[in-house]
Amino acid sequence: MTPIPYNNNPGACAQGAEMTFAAYPRRTLTDDEIRRYREDGVVMIRGAIEPNWMALIESGIEQARTNTSLVGRFMSRKVEGYQMDIFLWKRIDALRDLIYYGPFARWAQQLMRSSEVRFFYDQMFIKEPGTDAPTPWHQDLSFWPIRGEQICSFWIPCDPVTRANSGLLYVKGSHLWPQRFKAISPDYVAAIIDEAMDDIPDINADPGRYELLDWEMEPGDILMFHPLTLHGSYGNASRTQRRRALALRWTGDDVVYAPSAKRMPIHFEHDSTAGGPLRGAAFPRILPTIEPAERAARLRPERQALLRLLGSSAYNAWAAARLGLKRDATRALRQTWKP
Ligand SMILES: O=C(O)CCC(=O)C(=O)O
């Protein structure tokens, strides 16, 4: 299929709109790539992303890096040199265009075998040179207020990555394990740690026991992975190279909204109700067609509701104090990350 040209001018679609639907990718995924995603829980596709889309990603990441949101500052406050932020597309036009008009939704549709594809959220992960902060082993789904099988994430580096400068590592096939592990974030956010869930085994302390997958990657390469595949990364040992990456999360037909105090709160407007499908401006439908009302909402950048943000911080402080009382619980959360 012919790729649709994009004029590479961030914001052009929002202002005039020469595109009204998601572009077709340079190439579709092969049966073998889809099989690897299903069996291993992750697949790396080399050279998948065309330079025009990479330029948009880099522009979006640089805007987010240099103009951090309130929630981004909160997420990054504890780990020196490790900068994170979420829902970037709500305030950065280049990323809104990427999500609506980039080729990503079509790959997600193929992987998830779903007729509908909604965008769940985006996330930035930046590790400055010499940042000794790992991303602990975790399963993404433990963090999220959703349920379902048709969910996938893409991880896109903007800089060359190796294991030593914080390329992602995966435990092969771990998405098929029966356990649901506690949500361990780089700053150990207590509010989302559900004590009823399993403790994550100390993967790096027992290397012979697990088959790890990782790749040296260049800008233009993409990782596609299942929300239950255990993954993490070392700190960035490079003295010169910043490591910037964007994650895009997608949902399909069977996904329902499942909010809980122990899941990531959503601070943007949407119309989903507990147990029902995702809908509304926070989780826009991209395929099979764009939902006009959600698309109209996307033209109005939205700030996170401050009151809800303050409420989440207070709840988190309370949860941290509670978890601190249970010393055994926190000990079990610590992981070995020595290169
Ligand atoms: O970039 C990283 O180190 C973490 C990425 C990650 O955990 C994710 O995209 O789910």
UniProtKB/TrEMBL annotation:
Pfam families: PhyH. It comes from the Bacteria. GO terms for molecular function: 2-oxoglutarate-dependent dioxygenase activity; iron ion binding. Coiled coil: none annotated. This is Phytanoyl-CoA dioxygenase. It comes from Pseudomonas tohonis.
